[in-house]
Design a protein that fits this description.
InterPro entries: F-box_dom-containing, FBD, LRR_FXL15/At3g58940/PEG3-like. There is one protein chain. The protein has five helices and 16 strands. With 308 residues, the chain is α/β, with parallel strands linked by helices. The mean pLDDT is 84.
Amino acid sequence: MIRLAPTLLVARIGMCKLPSDIAAPSLNSPLLRKLTLWLVSISEEAIDVLLSACHVLEALFLQDIHDVGRLHISSPTLRIISFSATLFGREELVVDDVPRLERLLCRGVDCETIQINKAPKLKVLGPLSPHVSKIRIANLVFQGRIPPSLGHSICTVNILALKFSGPDLKAILGVLSCFPCLEKLYVIVWDIYLKAKMKNLHQYDPLNPVKCLESHLKVLVLKNYTGGEEEVGFAKFFVFNARVVKEINFAVCDRIAIDKNWMTDQLRLLQVEARASQDARLKFRSGYSHLQTNYVNSSDLSIADPFS
């Protein structure tokens, strides 16, 4: 690898253990733009060495990384970081000083804390999951299902994906209040068998509105939708309160047999005639599998929306 490093544009390293002293003086990858590490045992020191040797690296993909308690990622050139089913020993992931980072994709990340510092161009984020105990983005802290404080916001993010075991409106509104310029929202019900009762449906105060619902949110996607009472109530909230939304898309769970009568009944329950945005169109698509809840198209940087 070290011998070929100066000529590589794309590298995929897997099923191995990388030593901490990974030939730091001689390792140099001046042309490498995309790096994938999968099923790799690696130390924090080795990650630092690898990244410092990559002078034009734009995409970093980490999958099933082992034996590292605190993973620190820092790079002046990275545009996308993707973590997939990554095992950190339930410790800490720190993404720090990444001035060009546009996407942070977290698929199946299981750790205590995710911390993101100095990412001024971050546009795409998620799926954020309650499996992560604490998520800190600059001065903004998300802790479990507790809504973050309203003193801080992130204006650069326009595509966000959230994962919940059920349609928890209070928690989601707390998150949305921190992303005032959000244009696309994905809500993924990650386990149809562990759905929680929806709470606080009528607590929304129009005198203290969520900014993105008033002027920015154009697309809402509900994945693994079953059309049950809680989910209808959740979706109806956005029908009534998202004032500029253009599309509300329902990716219907594959165990639900949908037909014209089913869709007609859903439209009746959702009371679409009373929608806040007269331009809004509701679309139902069948065959969504709960096994897809971690799917993110992260391999192609030219795709504007990796969750679509």
